[in-house]
Amino acid sequence: MLNKNSPRIGAALIGRLKELGNPETACGARIFLVIFTGHPASQSCNFRYCIREAKKLPSRWNLGAINFLSSPLFQRIVLRELGLAHCSKEFSIS
């Protein structure tokens, strides 16, 4: 479940990812956070919705976003920082 600090934590994570020098990864993080925290089902682990939305993006960012959402970095850092580590087993791309 997201808490009231999630937007602040998310902004910090995006900043950290930008520092890594990979704009596609940072974009993927932003897409996830915007979609996940803004969707009516945001109190649940609705990753499949995030992937469906990411696939609708222009191709330049689509691949980066999907790669990010399926990456160990996402699993390890973003889910943990947002208090959603318990959801990691539900997330897969088929």
Shape verdict: globular
Q: In the residues, how many domains can be counted?
A: 1
Q: What value does the average pLDDT take?
A: 58
Q: Termini separation (Å)?
A: 24 Å
Helix content: 55-70%
Main sheet: strands, sense, barrel: none
Question: How many individual β-strands?
Answer: 0
Number of helices: 5
The helix/strand order is: HHHHH
Low-pLDDT regions: 39-45
Class of secondary structure makeup: mainly alpha
Return Rg in Å. Answer: 12 Å
- Which percent band covers the strand fraction? under 5%
Task: Please tell me about this protein's structure.
With 94 residues, the chain is mainly α. The protein has helices at 6-19, 23-38, 47-55, 59-69, 72-81. It has one domain. The N and C termini lie far apart (24 Å). Mean pLDDT is 58; it is low at 39-45.
Pick out its properties:
94 residues; 5 helices; mainly alpha; 64% helix
What topology emerges from the helices and strands here?
Elements: H1 6-19, H2 23-38, H3 47-55, H4 59-69, H5 72-81
Helix pairs in contact: 1-2, 2-3, 2-4, 3-4
Give a quick rundown of the structure:
The chain has one domain (6-90). It has 5 helices and no strands.
